[in-house]
Amino acid sequence: MNQSNFTAIAALTNQPDGVATMKVSEILQVKGEILYTVTPDMPLVQAAATMAEKDIGSLVVMEYGDLVGMLTFREVIKELHAQGGALGNGTVRKVMDDSPITVTPDTEVNEVRRIMLEKHARYLPVMNARTLLGVISFYDVAKAVLEAQSFENRMLKAYIRDWPAEQAAED
User: Fold this and answer.
1) What's the pLDDT score for residue 170?
2) DSSP for residue 156
3) Which of 5, 42, 130, 143 is the most exposed place for a label (fewest CB within 10 A)?
4) Residue 85 neighbours by CB under 8 Å, 6+ apart
5) Between the CA of residue 107 and those of 38, 58, 111, 115, 117, what are the distances in Å?
6) Structural domains counted in the chain
7) Do the Cβ atoms of 126 and 105 come closer than 8 Å?
């Protein structure tokens, strides 16, 4: 494929030099606005029940309007193991991650993937200054990347299918 063909395909997919530049804000738009929160003083057993009832893997821990932590199934399972299979009377504060890694709406998806892999983070709060915009999961990122690649693949196939006959003869 010559450079002009590559440039045409990159323009067709609306990506500079064919490199995906999807941002976290795009994932949040598709994902929706539902966000589940708890307070640090909520009983852990109640938080775990919420996670099970809503079929979610994380809860954002908020106190006085600020993000103070994340509670994921990982922390709940660790506590279950430490307590011999029972959550007991502990609170969310006791087991939550009080320093969650965050991203901004302008963070590129490839950077999010790198962070998630390096830090073993399945859930990342999205912050705009001190305002919580949402949480993206490893699943959300994988789904967005797959959909973007599928779209690009369809566009490339359409471009190839509609390739001008005289240009194809020259190549």
Assistant:
1) 59
2) H
3) 130
4) none
5) 26, 21, 7, 11, 15
6) 1
7) yes
- 145 part of a folded domain: yes
CA-wise closest residue to 103 among 119, 118, 115, 117: 115
- Report d(CA 121, CA 72) in Å as an integer: 10
In this structure, what CATH number is given to the domain that contains residue 28? Answer: 3.10.580.10
**Coil, strand or helix: which one is 152?**
helix
Inter-residue contact 92 to 40 (CB < 8 Å) = yes
Q: Which residues of 41-55 are buried (b: 16+ CB within 10 A; e: fewer)?
A: ebebbebbebbeeee
Tens digit of pLDDT for each residue in 44-68? 999 999 999 999 999 999 999 999 9
C-beta of residue 96 within 8 angstroms of C-beta of residue 69: yes
Structure tokens belonging to residue 81: 């193991």
Task: Please give the Cα distance from 71 to 48 (Å, whole number).
Answer: 9
The CA distance from 25 to 144, in Å, is: 11
- 79 is in which domain, residue-wise? 10-170
The more confidently predicted of residues 87 and 118 is: 118
